[in-house]
Fold this protein.
Amino acid sequence: MAEAKRILLEGGAVAFPTETVYGLGADARSDAAVENIYRIKGRPQDNPLIVHVHLNFDLNSLVYDDKPYAKVLRQTFLPGPLTLVYRSKGRVSSRVSCGLDTLAVRVPSHPGAQEFLRYVNLPIAAPSANISKHVSPVSAEHVYFDLNGKIPLILDGGASSGGIESTVCDVTGEYPVILRQGLVSREMIEKAVGRCEVYVPKEGEQVRSPGMKYKHYAPKCKTRLFDDPKAAVAAFEEEKKQGGRVYILCESKYATLFPSEYVLDLGTTPEDMAARLYSLLRQGEKVADIILAVRPQETGGVMAGVLNRMNKACAGE
């Protein structure tokens, strides 16, 4: 912890665990430290970052918190995989929000993340700790694979349990608006505070949250996404005929359609699929020329976040 704090105060970056994915953290107050994150990841300059703080951090030192429903969301879901976007007081580097007047803030529930954030007691800007557009890391080993030689320290907190990034929710308006879907679903937010909408960015618009643009979460091999399991079976057989190393990513109920040694099994529930998705994509890229993914049929709740990540990983193919 002492080494991590020293690195951060000197403008460096440290990888740390959260319950969703591993983060690449730097002092959010420093322009140079934040710019270093973009440089390490090769991250597009118009893609905002999320500030991570511990549970007892003074939120009002960073943002204007003037919506009663935002307090309800914090009481219901935090610490946890929910990021809230507030009006910013401008106390962190403008590079964090890419010049916008808002700031995304998250309180992770991972015990190691809370210990780290309490110890450094700084607002920590942190995207996922991977090369931009690659599959997000859910273990220290994944971080090492992507960033070995680029950062001085990884805090190993074991495997991330959630598996996909936090839900990002704008709380600057009259009701919450989801900018990025994740483990806290629209239905869960509606149950807590009533109305909640999901935002669809317009062409050319500057985004207010990470994960709203670009190809994301993609393995190094080719990918294709199928709605119809039978079409995936036909594509699998054709790829095998041509001698390709082809693997199938699917939920358990479709696994029996394929030879078991080529199946990356997502499991049976949305929570299973969220927890396994990134690990399976990273496992698959080591052995496959192409991964054929079968889209789960369920669409609501946590599955909306899983489907968002699968769509981005396959880039519409």
User: Anything to note?
Assistant: Residues 133 and 216 are 4 Å apart (CA to CA). The chain is about 30% helix and 15% strand. The longest strand covers residues 82-88.
